Amino acid sequence: MKKVLLSLMLATSLVACGEKTEAPKENEKPVVKIGVSLPLTGDSANVGNAVKASVNMALEEWKQKNTKFDYQIIFEDDALQTAKAAVIANKFIDLDKVNAILNIWGVTAPVVAELAQKKNTIFFTCAGYIDNKDKSYVFNNYTPTERVSETLIKRLKKLNVKSVAFASDLNAVGEARTKYIVEALKDSGIEVVAVERYVLGTVDFRMSIAKMEAQKPDYYVIFVEQPGTKNFIEQHKQIVKKDNLAAIDVFHEMPKKYWSVANGLWFVKSANGTSEFETKFQKKTGMEIQSCVGNSYDNLNLIISAFENAQVDSDKILPKNEEVLRQLHSAKNIEGAIGKISIDEYGNVDSLAVIEKMVDGQPVVINE
């Protein structure tokens, strides 16, 4: 479907947000504006600010090169709130006249994706789930749920787990992941004895945990995002009194001061950055690697590379959107922060999940 949309786009005259209508002044480069919407405050600010640092790091590296265009980034704080993300996306497109938008996570990504597609604006995200198969302007750089599921099941089987209780947030990401992973667990022969879902922001899980414990699961698997993660771990310990709790992503997405709460527990997460990237990032920023840091670094590089390689009619204007999209879809086997990356026909970047364990308040990779 995406190929069809792209073909139609190439054959049709579109009013492209990426085209510059006025030539720059003498000796000035045409400007490419990129809006970046992140949770810079609130419970997920540790992740948002680490991603901001990685985007700035990528931009600074491009500034050392002789680029065709001048790249400018506009940061906004969406506080991981859907309504706020929508307002910011509209501001980026209608007022700032950006040529592309970046954000992270499936809480806010779907609403931005709809707006970006509607208004012909390139959008890159790092989200556990987003429906982008009919959205030619939308790209997602995140380890697919099927990879996460494969890794989770392999670990559970190694631990001889026969039954699990699954708990997740009640939103688009949580619902999509729950549906896929629960079915995959059942198909693998692991019984799912309970499934609980929570409104984002829930902090009291005691009745729910007690309800699941009554079904006597061998293990609990959770995808419960902040601010509930810490509370779920603590309340699970109080009620179950075992370390039979694993997670998808959310342990390392807690503020670092809470990491020790998960000591001894393991979790499956999206692809880490390479060791080279992690060393470079920590050295340049003094910050820890977080969810979507390497992905977002790669996303900015992919966007800028596409603009730099796209054909233009004049050195005084920007390339048309369809030409930039063509460059993005031709990205194959590129060395990135998370390893070799390629963009498929739907705008997805594939990568492998990893398993980490919290040890002395730090995530440590488990080598299977």
Summed up:
The protein has 368 residues and is an alpha/beta fold.
Give a written overview of the molecule.
It is a single chain. With 368 residues, the chain is α/β, with parallel strands linked by helices. Helices cover 38% and strands 20% of the residues. It contains 11 helices and 15 strands. It has helices at residues 2-11, 45-63, 82-95, 109-118, 145-158, 172-187, 206-213, 228-240, 275-285, 293-309, 321-329; strands at 31-38, 70-77, 100-103, 122-125, 138-141, 163-169, 191-198, 219-223, 245-248, 266-269, 334-336, 339-341, 348-349, 354-359, 362-365. A 7-stranded mixed beta sheet has the order 7-6-8-9-10-14-15, with helices on both faces. Strands 2-1-3-4-5-13 form a 6-stranded parallel beta sheet, sandwiched between helices. Helix 6 (172-187) links the parallel strand 6 (163-169) and strand 7. Helix 3 (82-95) packs parallel to helix 4 and helix 10 (293-309) crosses helix 11 (321-329). The chain is elongated and about 70 Å long. Mean pLDDT is 91; it is low at 2-21.
